Amino acid sequence: MDINIIENTENPQSDESEYEEIAHTAAEVLQLMEEAWLNEKFAPEILPHKYDIVECLLGQVSHVEENLSNVHNDDLRRSLHQMELDRLRYLVSSYLRLRLEKIERFVYFILKQEEERSQKGEENYLNDNELNFAKCYGQSLDQHFTDQLQFWPGNIPAEWKNQLIVPNIYSYVFMKAKNEIEGVMINHVNEEEEVVDLKTGSQILISYNNVGHLIRNNQSCLI
């Protein structure tokens, strides 16, 4: 996906340096958005939200749409720009769907984790809208199970709510180091442990629980 096609479609002769700067900035934002999307796609747990990147990318999309409004429908540039905008919208919508799917799948676990972060004064992984959705979804599930379990024969286990569905953090992922990383722990099948140092650009297949903190801290990314 290449966003370098962004240019001044309204007046190609006006202040070219300004639009070169806009294109460069948009390319950087797109790279960050693609990285956030891939991380969310391959990570078994929900990651800290990247809505600042989402909003910035949507702002770039709006800028291009404004320029396209002054381009004739028969102009080839309009078709090229429109195709690029469609790809960007797909990228954003896919990222949002991935996060909502995880919220629905692990809602009780995620709400518990968010409550613990709030008590510790840590940054939440969900933004306000996601947190409100998670709470409403969890309440709906509670009501559904309560309504259905009243017909359950015998005594209802009191601890049923504590049986949380949790992400499989021991699943294996492909990771790429964004900079030099020392002391990465690798757990082998025979239960032996090995500590390795990764160079910038190194790629490795590894259990997520060993590198999840590197993904969250932006030291590496999933591929």
Automatic annotation (TrEMBL):
<dbReference type="InterPro" id="IPR036224">
    <property type="entry name" value="GINS_bundle-like_dom_sf"/>
</dbReference>
<dbReference type="InterPro" id="IPR038749">
    <property type="entry name" value="Sld5_GINS_A"/>
</dbReference>
<feature type="domain" description="GINS subunit">
    <location>
        <begin position="79"/>
        <end position="146"/>
    </location>
</feature>
<keyword id="KW-0235">DNA replication</keyword>
<dbReference type="GO" id="GO:0006261">
    <property type="term" value="P:DNA-templated DNA replication"/>
</dbReference>
<dbReference type="InterPro" id="IPR008591">
    <property type="entry name" value="GINS_Sld5"/>
</dbReference>
<dbReference type="Pfam" id="PF05916">
    <property type="entry name" value="Sld5"/>
</dbReference>
<comment type="function">
    <text>The GINS complex plays an essential role in the initiation of DNA replication.</text>
</comment>
<comment type="similarity">
    <text>Belongs to the GINS4/SLD5 family.</text>
</comment>
<dbReference type="InterPro" id="IPR021151">
    <property type="entry name" value="GINS_A"/>
</dbReference>
<keyword id="KW-0539">Nucleus</keyword>
<dbReference type="Pfam" id="PF16922">
    <property type="entry name" value="SLD5_C"/>
</dbReference>
<dbReference type="GO" id="GO:0000727">
    <property type="term" value="P:double-strand break repair via break-induced replication"/>
</dbReference>
<dbReference type="InterPro" id="IPR031633">
    <property type="entry name" value="SLD5_C"/>
</dbReference>
<dbReference type="GO" id="GO:0000811">
    <property type="term" value="C:GINS complex"/>
</dbReference>
<protein>
    <recommendedName>
        <fullName>DNA replication complex GINS protein SLD5</fullName>
    </recommendedName>
</protein>
<feature type="domain" description="DNA replication complex GINS protein SLD5 C-terminal">
    <location>
        <begin position="167"/>
        <end position="219"/>
    </location>
</feature>
